[in-house]
Amino acid sequence: MVRLNDSFEYDFYYGASATTKAQAAELRKNMTVEEKILWQKLRNKKLNDLKFRRQHPVDIFILDFYCHEKKLAIEVDGGIHNQEAQREWDENRTYELNEFGINVLRFTNEEVIDRTKEVMKSIKDFLKLQNPIPNPSPNGEGS
Description:
Helices cover 46% and strands 17% of the residues. By secondary structure, the protein is an alpha+beta fold. A four-stranded mixed sheet has the order 1-2-3-4, with helices on both faces. The protein has a single domain (17-129), classed as 3-Layer(aba) Sandwich (Endonuclease, Chain A). It is built from six helices and four strands; from the N terminus they run αααβββαβαα. A hairpin with a 4-residue loop joins strand 2 and strand 3 (72-77).
């Protein structure tokens, strides 16, 4: 395996630990039905010729799907995300990801299963209108 330089490693994984990377690898082996449906639409550059990764580690988080080129995370949420404590966690997580310059789109399991075409259209529309969040400067302040 080729060792990536530290700068690329940080820019790509935002300092994710070896443990988080290992957890992401395990999650890739155990995707939900909804994740598998969406992955079939995103994989192999099927969407706008963009490379998406599944279960991608970023800092302490694991993103369901991530396009590094567009700094876009796509999350597929099950029923637990309706609970107040989980909603608060999700909001904080989105805030933290935004601090890295990553936008987050969220879809429910039901949307992915019952309205896959609409989900894909929402992603395409977002990409057309996307105003990327500025990348943080090296000293931790926004650009």
